[in-house]
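User: Can you help me understand a structure? I only have the sequence.
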Amino acid sequence: MKKALISAVALLVVSMLLVAPAKAKTVEAYNSHIESVLMDPGKQWVSEDGILHIRDSYWVGTEVGTLGSSTLEDWLSFNIDLTTGEGTLSGTWLLTFEGRGTISGSATGKISLGYLINGMFIGTHATGEFEGVQKKGALDGMLLDPTHAVMDAVGLVYYP
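Assistant: Let's start by predicting it. Here is the structure, written out as tokens:
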């Protein structure tokens, strides 16, 4: 009898989950323009094989786009072959929309010719009016000099 009651309750719970309507998300095209400057170069060294390693460099700037204007903070790491200018980047970022909330996430990418940047981003943590919002897409930009970068981002924003 006890097993039958547990089975009946389990069947009822599963049935409710299957019948419950799925919450629809709204999806919107996303684009933005980013400008940032290097505030702290982080730890840097060149390995014996000619690779420049940069860890935890700190960049600050602005991002203006679909979600509005925000302050951008990036904590980036790079590995760049000094002979070819080819390399990789990875890091985390935080957008702060004054009085509205934040969105944070990560980015990865490639560097070509020592200054062209091409990569991907994803933002999955948000606060304030952006609670539950996620965004992801592609980055395309360049280092104008070792301390100034510009990029454009395109992708999708997912609203809860």
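Now, to help you interpret it: The helical segments are 2-19. The longest helix spans residues 2-19. Let me know which part you'd like to focus on.
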